[in-house]
What we know:
Layout: E1 7-15, E2 18-25, H1 32-40, E3 45-51, H2 57-70, E4 75-80, E5 90-92, E6 98-100, E7 102-104, H3 108-113, E8 120-123, H4 132-142, E9 146-152, H5 164-170, E10 173-176, E11 179-180, E12 187-188, E13 190-193, E14 209-212
Parallel strand pairs: 3-9, 3-10, 4-7, 4-8, 8-9
Antiparallel strand pairs: 1-2, 5-6, 11-12, 13-14
Amino acid sequence: MLRANLAFLHFVHIGKGKKKALMVDEFAFDNTEERRKNRLNGTGWHEVIVGSMFSGKSEELIRRLNRARIARQKVQVFKPIIDSRYSVQEIASHSGQKHDSKPISTAAEIMSEIAADTQVVGIDEGQFFDPEIVVVANELANRGMRVIVAGLDQDYTGTPFGPMPHLLSIAEFITKIHAICVKCGQTANYTQRTVESDALVEVGASDKYEARCRKCFVPHADSPTLHP
Length: 228
């Protein structure tokens, strides 16, 4: 995941109507304190990690799950059974990182698999699930669990993908990450299909897709980028 060294001004009151401007590192604030407060009072919550393909969504999900395990929290992880690109029993990033998971066919199966003492639930490739995944995420958060869903927010035409818009709308915390456009090197927000297919779901990796920026993206299949 690429991170820029960005900052913004935050104004705080220092008394007698005066304000002081503080420079805050944008990426230093990841809602950790807010999550800690929720954990202390037993409140669950829902996190969503979105972006184009090759942006590092699964990598970020795996990072959070590993940190939860280090903290000795009970973790359960799920993925759609149709995603067997790198592994059947694991979620996997394009960079090769992996984490054990349970492949399932429907969102409802998650509820039957959840253990009573589970504290953190990870769900990868959320866009491939049926609409019931929204109900499941809400229910688990209402039970006091931390629910983390990673997925594509847009399909190959640039249209909001499956249940992801609804998952974003109910999430307490949202992380939007980006890839690098393979054509021009700018920030990539889109997933470009590079094979001829009109199917909404066409599971693949670099053999069928590449990351593109707004300028280089076309909302249909396009020839893969060739570099000399």
